[in-house]
Amino acid sequence: MGKISCDVKDLGVDAMSFSSHKIHGPKGIGGLYINNSFKNKIKPLLYGGRQEIFSSGTLNAPAIYSFAKALELSKEKEDYSYIKNLNLYLRNKISDKFKGYKINSPLENSSPYILNVSFEKIKSEVLLHMLESDNIFVSSGSACSKGNNSRILSALNMDEKYIDGAIRFSFSHDIKIEDLDFLVDSLYEYVEEIRKVF
To answer: Are residues 58 and 118 in the same domain?
Structure first.
């Protein structure tokens, strides 16, 4: 949502959920599309006022408005090709500078807004904190799997030497090429430093 076309008719979906924070909107608010033909299959968890179809309670109007505004702004940017170029640029910079790495995100048929890369002989949590000292913020996994190895990378039969060193980079229209150059310089310094210890 807000990154690629999500026309529910083109997609032919019965239901689709989407989160505000993924498009720079407020946390704690999201949306749920339900096809009219599918509504009778959904039962409420909490019952309340008749004005609420699926959930009781007072709507968070400021958050809903903010979410709508964030979606409107994300549609105005239309930055898909710009983001794709950033993703490709970072892939190439990593390929040119590093040894002992594996790019886990396929080049085609994947979102350019995310790039997952594994570096062998490092611990991603250590790298994450070192990068934070340079105001570079990356992730070592999804928020719902903190402390565990990635089930996705394990399912792909990835060599164990890469799984511990998986880092996820996220792209937005706020990032510039110079930011990626700075990232790669810091990344190289810290990966080499960690490898001396591990």
So the answer is: no
